Amino acid sequence: MVKLAFLLVGARALRDRWWVLTLVAAALFLIASLILIDAMDGTMSVATQVFGGVFVFEGLLGLLTAFAFSGTRSRLLALGRAAALVFLGTFILDYPSHNGMALSLLFGTAFLVDGAARIATAAVVRFRMWRSTAAVGVVELFLALFIGSHWPLAHELKVPLAVAMLTLMSGWIMLRASLMLRAHLAEVAILSLPIYGGRDWYENAPVIVDDTGPLPPWEGPMTVRVWTPTGSADVKDHHPVFDRYIAAVDRNGAISTGHASLELKPDLYISHYPAEEIEHPPDEFARILRATAENDVKGRFQPSYAYECANWCEADQKVEFTRFDTRRLMAFWAGYRQVDTYNLTDRNCSVAVAAALDSALEGCLATRMPWLRVASLMFNPDVWAAAYIRSRAEAMSWTPGLVLDYALTMKRIVEPAPPPFADRLRDFLRRFAAGRVVATPPVRQRAEAAGPAHP
Q1: pLDDT at position 130 over 80
Q2: Residue 49, domain extent
Q3: What is the rounded distance in angstroms from the CA atom of residue 285 to the CA atom of residue 428?
């Protein structure tokens, strides 16, 4: 979450006030220490009560705004997300008097599922540093066992201790980030910081030396298009989760992984494709998924969306952005396209689109009070969701399904609908003031038309 919030606010807004992040890290260390000290008496519940209150507040706010979404599907998703937050929040608020064991099992299950998924994907994909990812998964399995069992501590103590450990980890990440921001050059994208470099997906992060020169002409929104595995193949047997996020098997037994592209008219089109179609026989699919050099093939960049439609089919999903940095997007694409190497799980169409989207959205929420914006983003459930999607992609790979979910979530963050209450109030006051100003000239004009008053 911290990394995503930094990305949206941008390095330029944060760099001059890097010391604020150091103070925040110190505060998190202090809070974690207080939680640990308070937990020693066996009645610790402050940490979980705070988390529960935040969840309930965000859920109720989501219920109030969900009906403003256009489209039945978007409205139902918003209602479902808000209802889940309210349920989880009320469940936590009743802790520890009634739900100590149940809440411990909930946290333990989350660690168990996440740890098992990390180990499985790292073993299959085998990207750079996959052993470190698998080690993190093993630690999560031990945490799941520790939290889920009644040994060596009671259930009422385990969740606060887990919260304290997560707080300490967040403090450590912020301390590292503050020191990196201190030495960061203003013209270099924040994506070049080591905290974003786990998979080398941002080695083409933009370097903006001069941001005052003219930009090439562009028109319309920035559009992310996705061909989902099921939407781009004739699939007989559906497996909802696997089909959406991994691949689908068509009626002929061939595997369809889908596709993703990004377009900014009239001239920018990001679509990375293998020069020759990669065969996906089911018995060799596990080998092809490895992000190793032997699976690198020559790639090509598709010239336009019309070309792809003519040679394949239309995308079945799209997400449009009107708030983005055109200069950073073009700088990223100029660097990325210098190498056409394609790898199914390490340098594919979805990786290119996700990295381009991150580059284009860097700093789009910059403000004169950047740390207040970062703090507000940390309480936004959509930021949590986007951060989780990023972590899944880093542990496995970006796929068209993950790119679609990520783009939809990022759009809700940078272009919320409906607008925030403060923006709507400001717009109302501006319109009201403009209406009074506009109403004045006709009165003056009538007085002038009547001529000078006669004595």
Answers
A1: no
A2: 2-182
A3: 57
